[in-house]
């Protein structure tokens, strides 16, 4: 088992810069996710770690070893590719045995390691089946067993669950996490699914436009995003470009106006008064909604419901203002009856739920 360390990795494809100076460290035994939208360079980075692509610039370490120039089979990495290709003409056993046969291991050892790997993914009984006789989830488990069979020191997974339907995907996520814990193997999971990354990872690296935007625990990246990109990519968010108003120690939001003609004012908990303009964030589930005005609250706004969507466990409410809108997520349990579009509503939130984002506001 080893950690992974990337130093100043860049990847150019002709004119295009797919990765731009990416540095990161994945600790030994850690479950690390690389999260980002399609085309942001996730697979490119994973392929560089696995040795399927040599970076234009930069160094890859696995453990203490500089592996940048080594071919994949000398890196002790197990990889599950985005389009999980099992060999269709080989049995489950032979699929999992493939890497061991390439390494010219003895027959008895191959058998033992294949059965061990299949037992990790709970498919010992399926050794003799052909891939087409398995469900999508089972095929994916075989692909994971195949990657683990060579006893790699790191496991690299490129969107391994993206072809599965929602329910199966959830089950497989739990299984994946259990397998990783049992084996204790350093793992990088590439995904574009923020919920998957949040629920599985020890830490997440958010990749946007070929650059690392933030690295942190699920809680850190959700509650204290570095910038607009991270805030918008992970979950839903209300963003406010606000101007500091020294007289009232408040932040005025010029792009939000209430029906009384006043701009929305934000009172955050603690604030740095270095600049005039700030980018502030408020998560929709941190906002309380009420049919009565709660003027004693430090942050309160009145608006009219512009949209109501019922998502089962929660409601997504769009509170329309004279200019602009604020998104609110409320628990299903809070509403015996669904509120209706056109109703006047009062919203409020706590000062500590107003979060400062680091990036400068460009106007
Ligand atoms: P992701 O996995 O995040 O969806 P990729 O790493 O596959 O993104 O791709 C990042 C960018 O690099 C994309 O714009 C893609 O078109 C480009 N790219 C990836 N591989 C190649 C390649 N072999 N040749 C040229 N461009 C590539
Ligand atoms: Mg990809």
Question: What are the salient characteristics of this protein?
Answer:
363 residues; alpha+beta; Rossmann fold; OB fold (Dihydrolipoamide Acetyltransferase, E2P); 5-stranded antiparallel beta sheet; 20 strands; elongated; binds adenosine-5'-diphosphate; binds magnesium ion
Explain this structure to me?
The chain is α+β, with helices and mostly antiparallel strands and about 375 residues long. It folds into two domains: about 5-225, Rossmann fold (3-Layer(aba) Sandwich), CATH 3.40.50.300; about 235-355, OB fold (Dihydrolipoamide Acetyltransferase, E2P), CATH 2.40.50. Helix content is about 25%, strand content about 35%. It has eight helices and 20 strands. It is elongated, with a radius of gyration of 25 Å. Magnesium ion binds near residues 42 and 43.
Write the layout of secondary structure elements.
Blueprint: E1 4-13, E2 16-26, E3 31-35, H1 42-50, E4 57-62, E5 65-66, E6 77-80, H2 92-102, H3 107-120, H4 136-149, E7 154-158, H5 166-183, E8 186-191, H6 194-200, E9 203-208, E10 211-216, H7 218-223, H8 228-233, E11 238-245, E12 250-257, E13 263-266, E14 277-282, E15 288-290, E16 299-310, E17 314-320, E18 325-331, E19 344-349, E20 355-357
Parallel strand pairs: 3-8, 3-9, 6-7, 7-8
Antiparallel strand pairs: 1-2, 1-4, 4-5, 9-10, 11-12, 11-14, 12-13, 14-20, 15-19, 16-17, 16-19, 17-18
């Amino acid at each position: 088992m080893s950690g992974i360390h990337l130093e100043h990795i860049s990847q150019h494809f002709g004119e295009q810069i797919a990765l731009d100076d990416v540095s990161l460290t994945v600790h030994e035994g850690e479950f690390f996710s690389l999260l980002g939208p399609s085309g942001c360079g996730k697979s490119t980075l994973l392929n560089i770690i696995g040795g399927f692509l040599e970076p234009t610039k930069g160094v890859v370490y696995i453990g203490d070893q500089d592996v940048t120039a080594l071919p994949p089979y000398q890196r002790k990495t197990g990889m599950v590719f985005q389009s999980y290709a099992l060999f269709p003409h080989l049995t489950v056993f032979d699929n999992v045995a493939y890497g061991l046969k390439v390494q010219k291991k003895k027959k008895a050892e191959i058998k033992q390691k294949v059965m061990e790997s299949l037992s990790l993914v709970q498919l010992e009984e399926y050794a003799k089946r052909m891939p087409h006789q398995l469900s999508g989830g089972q095929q994916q488990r075989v692909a994971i067993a195949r990657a683990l069979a060579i006893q790699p020191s790191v496991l690299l997974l490129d969107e391994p669950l993206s072809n599965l339907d929602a329910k199966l995907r959830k089950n497989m996520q739990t299984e994946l996490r259990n397998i990783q814990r049992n084996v204790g193997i350093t793992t990088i999971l590439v995904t574009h699914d923020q919920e998957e990354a949040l629920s599985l990872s020890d830490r997440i690296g958010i990749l946007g436009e070929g650059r690392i935007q933030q690295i942190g625990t699920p809680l850190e990246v959700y509650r204290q995003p570095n910038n607009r990109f991270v805030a918008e990519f992970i979950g839903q968010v209300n963003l406010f470009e606000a101007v500091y108003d020294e007289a009232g120690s408040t932040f005025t939001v010029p792009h939000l106006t209430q029906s009384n003609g006043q701009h929305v004012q934000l009172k955050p908990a603690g604030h740095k008064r270095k600049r005039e303009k700030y980018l502030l964030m408020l998560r929709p589930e941190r906002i309380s909604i009420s049919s009565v005005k709660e003027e004693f609250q430090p942050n309160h706004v009145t608006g009219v419901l512009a949209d109501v969507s019922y998502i089962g466990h929660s409601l997504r409410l769009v509170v329309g203002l004279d200019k602009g809108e604020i998104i609110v997520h409320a628990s299903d349990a809070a509403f015996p009856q669904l509120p209706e579009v056109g109703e006047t509503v009062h919203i409020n939130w706590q000062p500590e739920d107003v979060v400062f984002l680091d990036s400068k506001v460009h106007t």
